[in-house]
What we know:
- The structure is a homodimer.
- By secondary structure, chain A is an alpha/beta fold.
- Chain A folds into 2 domains: 9-137, Response regulator (Rossmann fold, 3-Layer(aba) Sandwich); 145-202, Winged helix-like DNA-binding domain superfamily/Winged helix DNA-binding domain (Arc Repressor Mutant, subunit A, Orthogonal Bundle), CATH 1.10.10.10.
- Chain A contains 9 helices and 5 strands, in the order βαβαβαβαβααααα.
- Chain A has helices at 17-29, 40-46, 66-75, 91-99, 112-144, 148-157, 163-170, 174-188, 193-202; strands spanning 9-13, 34-37, 53-58, 82-86, 104-107.
- Chain A has a 5-stranded parallel beta sheet with strand order 2-1-3-4-5, with helices on both faces.
- In chain A, β3 (53-58), α3 (66-75) and β4 (82-86) form a beta-alpha-beta unit.
- In chain A, α6 (148-157) crosses α8 (174-188) and α7 crosses α8.
- Chain A is elongated and about 75 Å long.
- In chain A, 30% of the residues are buried.
- The mean pLDDT of chain A is 91.
- At the A-B interface, α4, β5 and α9 of A face α4, β5 and α9 of B.
- The structure holds a DNA duplex.
Amino acid sequence: xxxxxxxxxxxxxxDDEAVRDALSWLLRSRGIPSRDWSSAEAFLTDxxxxxxxxxxxxxxxxxxxxxxxxxxxxxxxxxxxxIFLTGHGELxxxxxxxxxxxxxxxxKPFNDNELADRVLEAITWDExxxxxxxxxxxxxxxxxxxxxxxxxxxxxxxxxxxNKIIADELNIAMRTVEAHRSHVFEKMGVKxxxxxxxxxxxxxxxxxx
Amino acid sequence: xxxxxxxxxxxxxxDDEAVRDALSWLLRSRGIPSRDWSSAEAFLTDxxxxxxxxxxxxxxxxxxxxxxxxxxxxxxxxxxxxIFLTGHGELxxxxxxxxxxxxxxxxKPFNDNELADRVLEAITWDExxxxxxxxxxxxxxxxxxxxxxxxxxxxxxxxxxxNKIIADELNIAMRTVEAHRSHVFEKMGVKxxxxxxxxxxxxxxxxxx
DNA sequence: TTTGGAGTTACGGTTATCCACAATGTTGTT
DNA sequence: AACAACATTGTGGATAACCGTAACTCCAAA
Lengths: 209, 209
């Protein structure tokens, strides 16, 4: 495994202090920094979208359960990978949360090596997700800088329509389409329609304007 | 739920005849056709890639277990969705197979409605997958019809390179590039480089030639 | 009222694409 | 040897893309 960057942290949430301590110790011994909270509520008050790394959450806690926390974080559009811990072998819940996108589900008592590996996997996954997100974010920023007319012309360009056709359909001069087209390329940071189409398709963006 | 097309079938694999009968009856009452086998081995001898629908497999059977069947089907590149049944609440196995791509994991005794719904979901998913697969297959057929030189030119086209540049880099006449380019468009069924780039990117195809 | 962004358009020109028709050389198969 | 597929190139022309420069209008914010 690669050494963990200091920017990624394991966020531990469990109402059993002994478990938190054991986890902290385990992860520290692997070079993984961690922070811990004794309840989902406490974590939520501290939560910020800047946090990066992964969550390790006991599914059964006083007050808000791990499942409820999961839902709440989804509402906040939090995409941090979550590893659930359970001491009760609740299979149906495991299946449910995994299908909803939880990263992993581990029974207590857990194997130390396995847990640490999962945490590392989750952190790695989160970093990859974050990188993808930045790419996508940059593109969306560029898209937002387009005027609505430019977006409309762009949508037609990537459908393969020629300037002449676009001009006819929008009842404007071809030269105008050319001007918009040029602006679109400049703002989107590409040099051709091909590059533009590839950029958008690779990021799953369909322009409807 | 939409009525189940007769082409999709639930394939039931369980060494307990009573379970098979109960499942068959349940599914038939919902209009879902099914076939059943008493062992993974028996299913494998009958298996064909033409089968469409979903599998419902008891995880613990005499001889080959459900998990082993899962692996075996993966080797055969079978993409049928699999719903596992278990009577023993084996959480760690549930987590494992779900992360490997199993469709669902249901504890016995199961709720009839729930199981039938899952089977329908799985069948629907399989049909969608099959549709996507056909699209992708058609594109790959077209890609295979390209000569290696044409693939090389195509790779450069979708990078946004101009004919002139391509000609220079390959030390051939521009006219030759034009000829290849024209063939590529014709064989791939598109009318412009933009359509080609979109087609490939949307299907996650990166051309390296 | 002034300023500025957005949308629009024209002129004149360069470059690139696309195409029909025609042809040559190479390679591998039958 | 004969044939087919492939890669190659040419001529000449129609069509489209691209660009710099320069306006004009509309509209909203300062």
